[in-house]
Amino acid sequence: MKALHTSVIKAAGLIAALPRALAGGLIAVLLLLTFGSGAAAAPIDQPDDSASLAGNNDLQGILRIMEDKDGSLTPEQAAAPAMDALYEPYSSSGFAGTLSKSVYWVKLDLYNDAARTRDFMLELSKPQLGKVTLYQFNDERKLSSETVTGRRLPFYDRSYIHRNFIFHLSFAPMSGEKLYFKIETDTFLQLPMKLWDTQSFLEKEQHQDLLFGVYYGIMLVMALYNIFLFISIRERTYLYYVLFILSFAVMQAVWDGFAYQFLWPDFPGWEVRANPMFITLTGLFALLFSLNFLSVPKYSPRMARIMQFFTVVLILALPAILLLSPAAGTRLAVCLSSVSILFCLGAILAVRFRIRSVFFYIFAWIVLFAGALLNILAAYKLIPLNFWSLYSIRFGSAAETVLLSLALADRFNGIRHEKTLEEKQGALLKQLHETTKRLTSTHDLDELLQFTMTSLSKITACEHGFILLEKEGGYELTAQTGAGPWYGLNAAEPESEAFLRRLIVEKQLILLSGHEDLSLPDPLARTFLGIPILYHDRMIGAVVLYSYFARRITGNERSILRDFAGQVGISMENVRLFSEINRLASIDGLTGVYNRSHFLKLARRHLAQCRNTGVPLSLIMVDIDHFKSINDRYGHLMGDKVIQETVKRLAELAQPRGIIGRYGGEEFVLVLPGVTAPQAIRLAEIMRKSIAASPVSMQGQSISYTISLGLSSLGPDTHEITSLVDQADRALYLAKESGRNSVKTL
């Protein structure tokens, strides 16, 4: 009971994080184990033909242990017959799970009654033991062999390079050996010891390697996935979650022995302190993750302040753990992590179920705790030790990692959904009426302006009107309704009209009616309304409405019109940005000509038209000679300048019918609708000579260079633009092979 109590205390950090509702779920998990069966065990002295010898032998049931509090016993003293009475069964000794400075002597008697020599592998699956010394005595209690291992020694000093402690045992026919283990540890004492024949050991290793690979692969994938999300959306919760996954995975790797084997095999001093360090880091990042994931500051500021204070305590404890002895550091780490998990539970109680993510969060911890509890119960043989119970902690932690990742995704979707609702509500408030929705859904400026004109005409009941749109420092008439501009308005210079000039200068809604003491632009009209279209206080247009009837527009209606016009300004800017994005998507950023994909799209269209109408079409591929040398010698800025100047000259010479695009790097391609092959050859020669005769200068440097050109022309068998490009490319290759600075055609 003492051992069980101690191990349960070790697991308190996991147990404390779960609500009372765990019990029902845990019972369901336990029921699954009734379908498993424990591993069969066989003593070493069974006959050769015993099938159970192919399995593993759990030795914990026959181990006997003695505590050497001051560590003064020698191997001969510990193995003396007079000391046998001081050894007690390990399973009932109460030493399992203790954390003490004492040295423990473990006795194991094995006998081979077979008529042949038999070899076995003894595995001690507790990589955290500080120092393990095996003394082998024969039947006469004569010391025959001594083997020293443990994590206080460099990893590669071991006889077998394995994460656990492996000892090779060879038994002569009809003989036995007395094995005495001297155990020195600065962590919790556990002696999971098994005896394997070589075949069973290799099979076990294959299965475990697969399982461990899957487990750590899941942890790594989840960490990478969420770090990419953090980089993309800059949400700190994802960063804390990644740090929690990594610290938990490394903590588990320390327990499994992989960390010492692969991460720091030459640093035993760090190995003995890695366990408490990563226990503390796991508690720290679990606390930070819970604090942010559950939005504790929003729902419980007091609990948030307490948790934030304890995170500082955990951070300050990290250097203290390095200064303390490993045993004291382990006690401190377990205590602090247990408290941090209690705070995670407190966060759940503080937030309650006001956010849906709490359900995922609780379930994830339930799964992890269930896995840990099953592992503890199996360790004390309260349930069968089978595949599920042996690796339940790993199944639980992997499932918890996936569930918390799903919870993060659900939380992100919830936040995005809330923001979308807020944006929609804000848009509805700004738009003020249903018709504005259409303004935000179109990317066609003419359609947007015409819809704006029609809508405002209906709202104000002004049957005539038009829209002025800013263009190149002036304004031009665009959409109109009814009669459009009134009689006598100079459509070429609308700013010359006093009413419009006032509207442009004041940038305020202007309403003129016939009963006011003002002269109207059109004497026959009774109502004039000018509404500026603004974007960030910049006037980008104006809506002008007028009616030959008196129209009454209240103050609220004026406010509605101003808001409506503001939404129109936003919509117009969106249309402009959309058009600009489309333009940029088709243009090469350095040269300003079409990029490859858009050029091929246009070229296909021209190819189809020329084939259908019988018009000739030619294509020229251009490559700058020795461009890499230009970059290497003069720098990339000069290289960019050469590319820009080349494109500029090619475009000028290809006018008016040629279309040019950047095909890649220093390669360019021109499609020439209506140009025959001989004409294209002459044009290519002109381009070649022009480039050769026109040096490029920049910052006092001047460089002369040449180009090579390959040509192809539309033929009766040409159906795809890629065929022309391929022919021209092969011709270009011939031009470069023939010495460059030339024009070639197939």
From TrEMBL:
InterPro entries found in the cross-reference section: 7TMR_DISM_rcpt_extracell_dom1, 7TMR_DISM_rcpt_extracell_dom2, Diguanylate_Cyclase, GAF, GAF-like_dom_sf, GGDEF_dom, Nucleotide_cyclase, Rev_trsase/Diguanyl_cyclase
Alphabetized UniProt keyword annotations: Membrane, Transmembrane, Transmembrane helix
Gene source species: Paenibacillus stellifer
GO MF: diguanylate cyclase activity
Name of this protein: GGDEF domain-containing protein
Keyword match Transmembrane helix: yes
SMART domains, A to Z: GAF, GGDEF
GO biological process: cell adhesion involved in single-species biofilm formation; negative regulation of bacterial-type flagellum-dependent cell motility
One annotated Gene Ontology cellular component of this protein: plasma membrane
Taxonomy, superkingdom: Bacteria
Chain ranges of the GGDEF domain: 615-746
Membrane-spanning residues: 210-231, 238-255, 275-294, 306-325, 331-351, 358-383
